[in-house]
Amino acid sequence: MNSPIYITNHIQFAIVGDTFHTPIKGEFEFIRDYLILVNLDGDIDATFTPEHPSYQALLTALAEQGKLQTLRQGQYLMPGLVDLHCHAPQWPQAGKGLDLPLYDWLQNYTFPLENRYQDVEFAQAIYQDVTKTLLANGTTSAVYFASIHRESTELLAQTCLDLGQRAFVGKINMDNVEQCPDFYRENDIAQAFAETEAFVSNVFALQGNDSGLVSPVITPRFVPSCTPEMLNKLGSLVQKYDLHMQTHCSESDWARDYALQHYGKSDVQIYADAGLLNNKSVLAHSIFLTEHDVELIKQFNAGIAHCPLSNMFFANGAMQTRELLDSGVQIGLGSDIAGAPSPSIFRAAFDAVAHSRVREEGVDVTVASGERGTANARISFIEAFWMATAGGAQVLDAKTGVLSAKHHFDALVLEASPLIGNLRIWPEFDTPRDILEKMVCLAQKENIQQVWVQGKQVI
Ligand SMILES: [Zn+2]
Question: How far is the centre of ligand 1, averaged over its atoms, from the C-alpha of 332 (Å)?
Answer without folding.
Answer: 14
